[in-house]
């Protein structure tokens, strides 16, 4: 087990709906990253948090938002869902906000299907 | 901006043949480079870090700063190597520059 826990594993929802994806980082890690993986776009960085504060923002749509809570778990909220939002959403964590030559530990992802 | 290019979307090789997965990067400084492997759309697993110069599962990768490349190599491919491979670049010391990933190369090892 990698130590990064993502729930739920699968999510099927209708267009226009809102969903929340949850991530618990590996014990001791303070940084959380969200990535979207789609077949044609590969891994796209969405947003980074470190110890509760937003550190970096990538190609995250305005319909999407995230936060990191005091217990360090993070939630990614996706609203007004469209068919094109169907993808695998990965959470990753690291001990520090810089990559420090150790890279990230990834969770097993949430597969979102919008119908 | 940093960029990682993996020119091959798909690479098919026969079992026992050598493998080279290409990765080129664009970054003006000294990057941190990684290879991740993903089996059957599961979680990404760290395979190699350039800083450690290690060999994992028979794979090696050498950073060539002159050619800005970090190709992944294995002398003899095994069927269990079939997976998606991602090259990633990090900016040392930056607290707000996440890893940038290439689009990945799917390796298919044919028996």
Could you explain the architecture of this structure?
The complex is a heterodimer of chains A (115) and B (111). Chain A is built from no helices and eleven strands. Chain A has strands at residues 5-7, 10-13, 19-24, 31-38, 42-50, 53-57, 64-68, 74-78, 87-94, 105-106, 110-114. In chain A, strands 2, 4, 5, 6, 9, 10 and 11 form a seven-stranded mixed β-sheet that branches. The termini of chain A are far apart. Helices cover 0% and strands 49% of the residues of chain B. Chain B is globular and about 45 Å long. The model of chain B has no long low-confidence stretch (mean pLDDT 92). The chains are: A mainly beta (115), B mainly beta (111). Chain A binds chain B through residues 2, 4, 33, 35, 41-43, 45, 48, 50, 55-56, 58, 88, 90, 92, 96-109, 111, and chain B through 32, 34, 36, 41-46, 49, 51-52, 86, 88, 90-104.
Write a concise keyword list for the protein shown above:
heterodimer; A: 115 residues; mainly beta; four-stranded antiparallel beta sheet; 52% strand; B: 111 residues; six-stranded mixed beta sheet; three-stranded antiparallel beta sheet; 11 strands
């Amino acid at each position: 087990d990698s130590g990064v826990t993502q729930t739920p594993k699968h999510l099927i929802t209708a267009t226009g709906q809102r969903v929340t994806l949850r991530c618990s980082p590996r014990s001791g890690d303070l940084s959380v990253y969200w990535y979207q993986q789609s077949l044609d776009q590969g891994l796209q960085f969405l947003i980074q948090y470190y110890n509760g504060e937003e550190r970096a923002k990538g190609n995250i749509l305005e319909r999407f938002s995230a936060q990191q809570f005091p217990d360090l778990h993070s939630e990614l909220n996706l609203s007004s869902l469209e068919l094109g939002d169907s993808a695998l959403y990965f959470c990753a964590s690291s001990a520090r906000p810089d990559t420090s030559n150790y890279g990230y530990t990834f969770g097993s992802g949430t597969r979102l299907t919008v119908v | 901006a940093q960029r990682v290019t993996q020119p091959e979307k798909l690479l098919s090789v026969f079992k026992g043949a050598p493998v080279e997965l290409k990765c080129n990067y664009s970054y003006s400084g000294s990057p941190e480079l990684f290879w991740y492997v993903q089996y059957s759309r599961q979680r990404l697993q760290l395979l190699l870090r350039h800083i450690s110069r290690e060999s994992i599962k028979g794979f090696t990768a050498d950073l060539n700063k002159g050619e800005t490349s970090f190709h992944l190599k294995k002398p003899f491919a095994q069927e269990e190597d079939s997976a998606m491979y991602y090259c990633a670049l990090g900016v040392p010391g930056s607290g707000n520059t996440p890893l940038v990933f290439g689009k990945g190369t799917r390796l298919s090892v044919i028996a």
